[in-house]
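Changelog note: in this version the structure field was regenerated for every chain. One regenerated record is shown below for reference.
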Amino acid sequence: MAIVGLGLLGGSLGLALKKAGFTGRIVGYARRTETRAQALSMGAVDEAPDEPFAAVRGADLIVLATPVAAILDHLSRLHAHWSPQALVTDVGSTKRRICEHAARIYDQLPMFLGGHPMAGKERSGLENADARLFENARYVLTPLKPEHSNDPRVQAFHGLVASIGARAITCEPAAHDVAVAYLSHLPQLLSSGLAGLMDEKNAAGGLSLELAASGFRDVTRLADSPYSVWRDICLTNTENIQMALDGLIQKLESIKLHLGDRELEREFAAAHRLRHKLRESG
């Protein structure tokens, strides 16, 4: 198999497969020489050529583990170099644009399967890769056509997902992007926006960060995530994220309006119900 992109997800995938006993040869590509050398020394890959074409040539499974814009570029530039029998998948955090682009390029050979492991850390990079990153995580799969789910290549990939401790969920690309706008992208922007506001208040001399405790640290944990990761996500899911932000703004306006009455209690009760549902679902 080939992993194009040896950051947090690509590196963790290689380590997780090795830990799970994967016996195939893993060839990895990263743009930086230092990253390729580090991936080899960590044991995340068996080979690390200095060209992406060499990494994907002859591979049965190709995983594009780069930011979304690079995934779109790789789909266009690399398809002439991979085997017609290959399964090509990705780890992009948005799916509609990627799947639409893949559908324009591919038919059956090779087969493309959209993917999004719902696992990660606030800190990116190969140095933060972890063989246990995918354990107990959902791994969303977005086939271009419903019948692709019956293809032996896709079924084999389901097995690989299970071997690293993740649970595969099949979803339609557009529905995926709506859901993650609320459940993933909105929390990130809320965390970053809150941390940015506190930075401005602190710089203006109107706020002492010495009073920040565990609650503030918890809610701003995602603010450590780099813009380089989130730029492409925001560009390829803009409308859904704007809709989610509008909903949150309306909710905050309602909370602001009802700070002094019992409506605020109902907001807390609704929040508790959601947390209970999340705990019950594991």
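Spot check on this record: Residues 173-203 form the longest helix (31 residues). The chain has eleven helices and seven strands.
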